[in-house]
Design a protein that fits this description.
alpha+beta; 9 helices; four-stranded mixed sheet; single chain; two-stranded antiparallel ribbon; 211 residues; 42% helix; 8 strands
């Protein structure tokens, strides 16, 4: 969780002056003791502070788990997005299958120029290839999920929000888009993608750096 400004001030006072009583902290901040009750409870609960009877509060510091969570929350999608693997709507089912395995990705974005038209996953390709269609002639636009139903994120969204969307909608990858409106026509430009692999890598990096 992100500390409020007053919680950060309390932690700093306790780190520099501790052990210190709640009343003394209130005097430094020029507020009432009761006004700090909830802040002190939060800081104690998450392990930033500890308290001893007849002694007062002393500084412990953020736990490794809290530091890792804070670091993860600081990441924006723009910080970690990767290049999207893209085909055009007229690309054949066969060529799309070749592309998805050649690029070793789970999802391919279907774009007209740089504008998102839809997405297609490995499951979509498997179902289509098992049908009675000719994979060499069927355009991928026939089986893609259209842009109106695509779950996406924007560059300024947090990585945590992106991860939550992937969990909620049970997808492995999300297109990163920028929304545009030109001549009353709304379109979305693809600027990259973010995947579960991306989230896992960042989580591991944060955990290793905090050790």
């Amino acid at each position: 969780m992100k500390l409020s400004k007053r919680q950060e001030d309390i932690a700093l006072i306790v780190r520099e002056k501790g052990p210190i009583t709640g009343s003394e902290i209130a005097e430094y901040l020029k507020v009432s003791r009761s006004a700090l009750r909830s802040d002190l409870a939060v800081l104690t609960m998450i392990g930033v502070l500890d308290a001893r009877p007849n002694v007062g509060y002393y500084y412990v510091g953020l736990s490794q788990e809290t530091q890792t969570a804070e670091t993860l929350r600081s990441y924006k999608v723009r910080d970690v997005l990767s290049q999207a693997v893209v085909v055009s709507p007229n690309t054949s089912l066969y060529d799309t299958i070749v592309t998805i395995f050649t690029e070793d990705v789970g999802t391919i974005l279907v774009c007209e120029e740089s504008y998102l038209a839809g997405v297609v996953s490995r499951k979509d390709l498997l179902r289509a290839s098992m049908g009675q269609t000719d994979a060499h002639t069927m355009p991928i636009s026939m089986i893609m999920t259209p842009v109106s139903k695509v779950i996406a994120v924007e560059p300024d969204d947090s990585l945590v929000e992106a991860a939550q969307k992937m969990i909620d909608y049970e997808v492995d990858c999300l297109p990163v888009i920028v929304r545009e409106e030109e001549d009353s026509k709304k379109r979305v430009t693809v600027v990259g993608r973010v995947s579960k692999t991306t989230v896992t890598k960042i989580f591991l990096e944060c955990s290793i750096h905090e050790v």
